[in-house]
Each structure stands twice: as C-alpha cells, then as structure tokens.
Design brief:
membrane, transmembrane helix, ABC_thiamin-permease_prd, about 190 residues, 7 helices
C-alpha cells in the first residue's frame, strides 16, 4: 500500500465528498418522509435506522478507492461537511456523526492492517460503524428510554442497513467502477 497522498487522491476525495454530500442530502429528505409515515405506527425511530447505511457510504468507498490510512475517516468527514454546506437540516451535528461513521469504517481496514481492501474489511467496518454510531446516538436520541427489545431492534436494523449500503452496495459500485476501468483500458 502506497502511504503518500497524491494530488489525484485529494481530488478524488474532494469529488467523493461533493457526490456523497448530495447523497446524504437526499437521504435526509427520504428520512423526513419515512419518519412521517412511521410516526402514526409508533415506529418513527426506525426511519433513521433503515436509512442509516446511506449516510455511511462515503467512508467505505473512499477506503477502497483510496487505499491509504485515514481515507475512510477523511472521506466521511468531508462528505458530512459537504452535506452541512448543502444546507442539511441536521446542521453541524453531521460532522460528529461523520466522525463516528468514518472511524468505524477505518477500524475495518485497521483490522486487516491495511492489507485488504475488499469485502472483509468492509464487513468489519460495517460492524465498527454500527457499534460506534449507535453508541453515540443512543445518548443523542435518548434510546435509553426504550425497552431492551426496542433498543436491540433498532441496533439490528441499523446493522443490516450499514451492511447493505456499506458492503453490498459499495461492492456493486466498485465492481461497476472496475468494469469501466477495464473497458477504458481496453480501448486505449
């Protein structure tokens, strides 16, 4: 693994931040709609958990595309910053969330000593992201007022969401990216 950051790495990270900041804004709108739909059923807290994985995608994409120490953390933080600058109604709090999400993903790559940039560290990162972010939001959203069944249900839904968006979707994105790279290489 090359450890030195290049100008190309920085430009790619900035592009990813810009792109995922927009994705995060879209997730915010979906969250508002889903939360409103689930409120009459008493299930509004699940809106956050169902969509949570969308807010974590910048970190694994950055970690796989830019295989360098800190790229997941930095990618998620910059995407959160872009979301905030786009006018997210979650405000500056997205930066704190972005830190926990990015660091959780970074732990997946740390677990493999930055030697693997495939599905395994993405799975580890999804677990790290889920645990760290849920711990933070447990206090932020007051989940402690819920019964243990509800807390466990929220945690499991979050984990499934992060696994879906952060592992399955990111793997599909990377396969498509690699296919495009191969086609571009074959035509040159």
């Amino acid at each position: 693994m090359e450890t030195k950051w290049t100008v190309q790495d920085i430009i790619l990270l900035a592009f990813l931040a810009f792109l995922f900041g927009g994705v995060f804004m879209g997730a915010g709108f979906l969250y508002a709609i889903l939360s409103a739909a689930l409120t009459p059923l008493g299930l509004a807290p699940f809106a956050n958990e169902i969509l949570f994985g969308m807010w974590t995608m910048a970190a694994p994409v950055a970690g796989v595309l830019i295989p360098k120490k800190g790229s997941s953390l930095l990618g998620e933080l910059l995407a959160a910053l872009a979301e905030m600058l786009y006018g997210s109604y979650f405000g500056p709090g997205v930066l704190v969330s972005g830190f926990f999400q990015g660091f959780g993903t970074e732990l997946g790559f740390i677990a493999t000593q930055y030697k693997r940039f495939d599905t395994l560290p993405l799975i580890y990162g999804a677990i790290g992201t889920t645990v760290l972010s849920f711990g933070y939001e447990f206090f932020k959203f007051g989940y402690g007022t819920f019964g243990i069944g509800m807390i466990l249900s929220l945690f499991v839904v979050r984990l499934l969401s992060v696994l879906f968006f952060g592992v399955v979707m990111v793997s599909l994105i990377m396969k498509s990216y690699n296919r495009v790279q191969q086609l571009a290489g074959a035509k040159s």
